[in-house]
Amino acid sequence: MSEAKTTTRLEREMAAKRKRKIIAAVQYTLAILVTLIVLFPLYWMISSSVKSQEEILLAVPTLWPHEIHLENYLSVFKRVNFGKYYYNTIVMTAGILISQIVTGVFAAYGFSKGKFKGQGVCFLFVLGALMIPIQVTFIPIYIMCANWGLNDTFLGLILPECISPYYIFMLRQTFMAIDDSYIDAAKVDGLGRIGVITKILTPMCKSTLFTTTLVTFTNGWNSYFWPKIIAKNEQRRVLTVGLAQLKNTFAGQATMNNHEIMAGAVMAILPVVVMFFMFQKYMLTGYSKAAMK
Amino acid sequence: MKKTLAILLTMAMAAGLLAGCSGGGSTGGGAVQQTTQAAAADSAGSSETEAAETEAPAEVDASMYEVTEPITIQWWHSIEDQHSWIVEEVVNDFNNSQDLITVEPVYVGSYAQVNEALVAAHAAGTGLPAVTVANTPYVAEYGAGGLTEDLGPYAAATGYDLDDFSAGMLLASQYEGKQVALPFLISTQVIYYNKDIADAEGIEVPEDWSGMDAFLEKAAANGRTGLSIPGWDQWYFETFYLNRGLNIINDDQVTTDLGSDAGLELAHQFKDWYDKGWIYWTDNGSDASSNMRQSFIDGKAFAVSHTSSLYTTYVDSCDFEVGMAWLPGYNGSKDQEIGGCVLLIPSKNDQATKNAAWQFLCYLCGKETNMKWASATGYMPTRNSVLTTDEGKAFLEEKPAFQCIFDNLNLIYPRIQHPGWNQLATIWKNYMIEIMYEDVDIDSKIADMAEEIDEVLEDAVG
Amino acid sequence: MEKKPLINPKTTSAIKDFVCVLPSLILIAIFTYYPICKLVQISFTDWNLLNDTWNYVGMKNWVWLFNGSGTKYLLNSLKVTILYSIGELTITLVGGLIFALIFNRMNGAFSIMRAIVFMPKYVAMSSAAVVFLWILNTDTGILNYLLGFFGVAPVAWLQNRHTALFAVLMVTGWRAIGYGMMIYLSAMIGISKDYYEAASLDGATAWQRFWKITIPMLSPTTLFLFVTTFLSSMKVFQSIDILTSGGPYRSTEVFVYKIYQYAMEDFRMDRASVIAIAFFVLLLVFTALTFKVSNNSVHYDS
C-alpha cells in the first residue's frame, strides 16, 4: 500500500520534472528564434554596410560579406556632409539636454519643496502641456521661429524642445520622496535655494536624474519631426534627416547604393547603441519608473 | 536691498509673462504681417527703381551691379549624386576663374524639396541661397509671391545677351513679362522604347493618339507592358490633355476643365488600357522612378514615358538599343512642355550677394557650361547659337536620338503658370493613381477632383 | 528698535520659489499654450506661406474640413491613424506580453537575449526605416527572397495599399515589442510569489494562474502601456515619411503626415491648422475616454 503510494509520487515528480524540462526546452528554442529574428535587421544593416557594390547587387543575397569594405564609411563622409550632420546632432542634443536639466531641476524644486500661492494651478499648467504635442502646435511655432530668423539655426532646433513637462514631473516625484529635514538642515547651514538644489537634492536623486537624462538624450538624438521642419538647409541638418535624405541623393543612379546607405545608418545609431550597452540597466528603469508610479 | 531686487525681478518677469500671453491672440499675427509687409514694400521699392533704370538703359549704373569685395555664396541644386562630378567641375572652374566670389554648391534634394526649403527660407527672410534651381512650373508661384529678383536690370547693366536663349525657354522663365529666371537644365517629355524589340516585331511608336490602340496591343505582347506612364508627376500625362485642347486651368484662372467630357474620356481610356495591361501607371512612392527604369532595363516594359534628361542614363544601363520618340499628338497637335529647371536669385538677398549671384548665374547658363551638361547628360542645349548651327549638328551626331527633339523644338511650350499649380498637381496625380489602381466610379471621382481643384485655384488667386 | 522687514519673509520665500518655476512656465506658455491659441486664429484666415499677407475668411476652412472636400481626407486620416494605433497597441501589449512569457527566465543567456530584443527601441527610426526599406523592397529585398523559398510570389509591401500599413507596422513593431516585453517583465517580477503558491495549493493550473493572477496584477502596467503607446502612436510621422510618404494613394496618410503635407509642402497654413485642431481635440477625447474606462477596470495592488 505505502510502497505503491511512493511509486506514484515518484512518478508524479518525474512527470513534473519532465514537464519542466519540456517547457524549458520550448522556452529556449522560442527565445533563441525570436532573438535571431529581432537581431536580423541590425545584422543585415551592419553586414551590408561593409559589402561591395557588386555583392549588394547579387541576385542571391549573401549572409556573410565576401570581403570587408570599410571604405563605404569613408565614402558616405565624402559624398554627403555626414561629419556636419554629426556635429549638428551633437550640439542640438547637448543643447536640449542642458536646457531641460536646468529648467527641469529648478521647476521640480519649486513644485516639490517650494511653497507659493497658485502652486497647484501652475503645476496643472505644466502637466497640461503633456497633452499638447509639437505635432499639433508646430505650425505656429514654425511661423514664430521663422519670424525670429531661427530657421537653420541651433537655437531654432533647440528652443521648442528646451523644456520637458515629463522631465519636470519625474523629478518632482523624486524630490517629493526626499525628507524635508535634509533641506531644513541645509538651510540652517546657510545654503540658499541654488545650494540646496545643487548640493543636496541633485546628488540624492542621482539615479533618477541619470535615467531620465538618458531617455532625454535618446529622444533628442533620434528626433526627426522638428529638425526636418526647421532645418531644411544642409548646414544644420541632423543625422536622422540626413540619413533619410541619402536615398534621394542616390535615387538617380541606375545601380543601388544600399551598402553606403547602410553604412550611414550604422553611424547614425552608433552612439546610442554603445550607450545602451553601457547603461542597459538604467535604460530600462528610466521607462519602468514611469510605469510604476 | 537683496529682497527688493528679487521683487523687482519677479515683477519684471511676471510682466513679461503677461505680455507674452496677451500678445498671443492679436498682435502676434499683426507683427508677422507688418514685418512681411515691410519686406514686401522694400522689395517693391527696389524693383520700382530698377524698373525705372530699365526704362532708361543709357542711365544704367553698371557699378551698382559690380562685385567689389570677396564673398562666399550658396547655390542650391537638385543634381543627384551621379552627376555631382559635373557640379564639382563647374563650380571649381568658376571659383578659379576669378578672385572675389566663392561658390558653395548645396544639394538640397528633389525639386519638391528645393521648393519647400526655398519658400520656407523666403518666408523667414533668412538662410536664402544666392542662386537656386527651380522646377519650371514654380516660376509663376515665385513670381507672384515676390520671391524672385527681376534679372532684366542685371542683364542690361552687364550687357548680358538674353537673345541667344531659345525663345520658348526664355518665355518659360518669365513672370508677367519680367525675366525672373534663366533656363538652366532643360528637358522635355519623351518616350524611350526598346529599339531591338521594335525592329524585330515591327512596332512603331505612333505619331497620333488614334494609333495608340494598335501600338499598345502590339507592344504589350510577350509578357511585357506596352508603355509605362509615371504617375508620380502629372507632367508626364498632361500633354495628352493639352493636345486635346482641354484647359487644365481655364482663362478665368479659378476653374479647371479636367472634369469635362474630354477629360473624362481620357481618364476612361487610360483606365481601360491599364486594366488590359497595355500601359502601366506607376505609383508615387519614393522608389517609383528607379523601379520604372529597372522594368525598362529588364525588358519588362516596351516603352516608358520619361524626361529627356535621363537619355544618357538609359543608354548606359540598357544592353539593347534605346529609341527616343516624341509623344503621340492629337489631330495634328503635337505640343509638348518644357521641363527641368531654371535658375533664379531670391529677392530677399542683399545687393552684394545678388551681384555675385548674377555673375555665377551667367556663368552657369553660359554656352560652354550648358554644353557640358548637354553632352554628359540628356539635358538640352539652350542656346540658339548651338541649336541652329553646326554645333547642333555635331551634338546630334553624338546623340542621334535627339533628332526628334530638334525636329520639334518650336513645339515645346512653357508650363502652365498659376500660383495654385502645385496643389492642383498633387490632387490630380493622386486621383489618377487611385482611378488606375482601384475599381472606383471614375466619373464621380473625376467630379470630386475637379471640385477640389477649383477650390485650391480660387484660394490661390483670391 | 528692530527694523521691520519691508516684506514678510514668508512672502519673499514664496516669491523665490515661484522664480524657480517661472522660466519653465514662460517657456511652456510660449511654446505650448500660445501656439494653440495662434492655431485657432490661423484656422480663420487664408494664411499661405507663399503670400506676404493674409486675411480673415471666417469659417471657410472649417466648412472645408467638416462639410466640404476636406471631409474625406479627415475621415481617411482618422481611419488610417486608428488602424495604425490598433496595430501598434496589439504589438506592444499582446506581443510584449507573449515575449515577456517567453523571456521570463532569469539567467545570463536570457538576460543577453532580452537586451538584444529590447535594443531596437534605441535604434533611431530613420536608421530602422532605411534598413526596412531595403528588406521590404519588392525586387531586391531579402524578405521576398526568403518568402520565395516557400513559394510565395514577391509582395510589393510598400507599394500596395493593402500591405503598406502592415509593412510600416512591421518596422514599428520591431522597435516596440521589446519595450513592451521589458515593461511587462519588470512588473511580473514585482508580483508576489505568495499569490501563485496559494493558487497552486488550491489546484489551479498554470493557465488559470496566468489568467486569474498575472493578467489582473498586470493591469496597471497594461494601462500605462496602453495610454503611452496609444498617445505616441497617434503622433506617428517619421516611419510614414520615410517608408511610404503617406502613399500608396493615401493608404498610410496618418494625421500628422497630412498636417505636415498641408503646412510644409502646400504651404497652406490655413488648412493645416484646422486639421491640427481637429486632431488635437481627438487626442483629448481619446485620452479622457481611456482614463474613464480604465478607472473602472484596473486592479491596483495596494
Q: What's the CATH C level of the largest domain in chain B?
A: Alpha Beta
Number of helical segments with 4 or more residues of chain B: 20
Are there runs of chain A of 5+ residues with pLDDT below 50, and where? Answer: none
> What profile does the largest beta sheet of chain B have?
10 strands, mixed
Largest sheet of chain A: none
Number of beta strands of chain B? 12
- Unreliable sequence segments of chain B: 1-59
From the helix content, strand content and strand pairing of chain B, which structural class follows? alpha/beta
Strand fraction band of chain B? 5-15%
CATH architecture of the largest domain in chain A: Orthogonal Bundle
Walkthrough of the structure:
The complex is a heterotrimer of chains A (293), B (462) and C (302). Helices cover 76% and strands 0% of the residues of chain A. Chain A is mostly helical. The model of chain A has no long low-confidence stretch (mean pLDDT 85). With 462 residues, chain B is an alpha/beta fold. In chain B, strands 1, 2, 3, 6, 7, 8, 9, 10, 11 and 12 form a ten-stranded mixed β-sheet that branches. A two-stranded antiparallel sheet of chain B has the order 4-5. In chain B, α19 runs antiparallel to α20. Chain B is globular and about 65 Å long. Chain C is mainly α and 302 residues long. Helix content of chain C is 71%, strand content 0%. Chain C contains 13 helices and no strands. The interface between A and B is medium-sized, with 25 and 32 residues.
In short:
Chain A is an all-alpha fold and 293 residues long. Helices cover 76% and strands 0% of the residues of chain A. By secondary structure, chain C is mainly α.
